[in-house]
Inverse folding.
């Protein structure tokens, strides 16, 4: 789900990006410590008001949606907000003046509402009701995970300390001031006090769906078949209608994932377990097998139990509308070339239609 877009370790006192995404930073006002959370790992020391690592705004920050941040830090003192990482007018990850961890992002809090900063904190959104602070004078790993759908979760040393499962928007693009580590984006304010050793940042992987679809070991006949199919879809329905179908399904998928993830940790964990099994079956090529059909039936029973039958019925109607309004159902179930060169996929679609009782098939 996530794609690493930044990895700094400051081993040489410089902000060299190791992720391959070319997100090198400019270091200002910091000192260097040879030993960070490990001997020889290196760390930047933040004491001056101007201390920061600035990553200029580049195109990769325009499409975040989901966002994951991991930071190794040693906090020396509180008394003021201590910024960890902030993206201009997009997201902020920090420690407040009392030592509570919080993460926010700039998006609507309610449907149709204005853009506001909202998120979660380890003071007010603790999953067990016990507020937890970031420890001082010791190395600690702090994490911010926004799934892009419904939840924002914060961790201290991999322990969940804050969670908000009622989000309705993903993380927006970063503004022109870029991303700043250890300080605010607009001025020398909220400066971190202590040491930062390593920073990793991930966004939603835009190639995940494509890689998932083609992880099957397609033979020499099947792969060209799909290229021909996509060309035929454009010819039969027009690019505009094809785009409308993809957009319709994408919106519906987001709504279903959001409905599941809004139910909390148990639902998230079970869904990830079921999803992993689906990916295993798909990538092994068992897409029209008895195991895949059994998985579809199991997932449907589980989903109805989690979100409720009425909500599932609404999604069913939406899915049928996506298929029927664009005429895609006939193509995926009856298109001759696919049946000849990728019969497993046709079997998968027929099983899908049967299990999910798609009308009009």
């Amino acid at each position: 789900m996530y794609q690493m877009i930044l990895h700094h370790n400051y081993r040489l006192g410089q902000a060299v990006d190791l992720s391959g995404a070319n997100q090198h930073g400019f270091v200002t006002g910091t000192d260097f410590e040879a030993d960070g959370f490990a001997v020889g790992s290196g760390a930047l020391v933040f004491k001056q008001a101007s201390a920061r690592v600035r990553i200029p705004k580049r195109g990769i920050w325009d499409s975040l949606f989901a966002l994951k941040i991991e930071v190794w830090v040693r906090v020396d003192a509180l008394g003021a907000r201590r910024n960890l990482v902030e993206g201009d007018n997009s997201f902020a990850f920090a420690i407040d003046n009392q030592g509570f961890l919080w993460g926010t992002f700039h998006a609507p809090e309610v449907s149709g509402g204005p853009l506001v900063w909202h998120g979660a904190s380890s003071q007010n959104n603790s999953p067990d009701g016990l507020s937890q602070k970031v420890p001082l004078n010791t190395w600690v790993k702090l994490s911010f995970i926004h799934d892009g759908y419904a939840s924002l979760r914060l961790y201290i040393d991999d322990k969940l300390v804050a969670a908000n499962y009622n989000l309705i928007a993903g993380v927006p693009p970063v503004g022109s001031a870029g991303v700043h580590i250890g300080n605010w984006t607009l001025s020398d304010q909220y400066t971190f006090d202590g040491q930062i050793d390593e920073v990793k940042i991930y966004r939603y992987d835009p190639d995940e769906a494509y890689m998932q679809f083609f992880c099957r070991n397609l033979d020499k006949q099947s792969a060209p078949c799909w290229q021909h199919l996509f060309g035929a879809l454009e010819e039969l329905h027009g690019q505009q209608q094809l785009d409308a179908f993809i957009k319709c399904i994408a919106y519906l998928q987001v709504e279903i994932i959001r409905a599941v993830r809004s139910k909390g940790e148990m639902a998230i964990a079970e869904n990830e377990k079921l999803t992993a099994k689906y990916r295993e079956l798909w990538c092994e090529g068992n897409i029209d097998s008895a195991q895949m059909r059994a998985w579809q039936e199991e997932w449907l029973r589980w989903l109805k139990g989690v979100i409720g039958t009425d909500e599932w019925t609404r999604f069913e109607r939406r899915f049928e509308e996506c298929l029927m309004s664009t005429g895609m159902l006939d193509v995926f179930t009856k298109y001759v070339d696919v049946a000849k060169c990728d019969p497993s996929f046709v079997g998968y679609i027929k099983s899908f239609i049967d299990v999910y009782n798609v009308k009009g098939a």
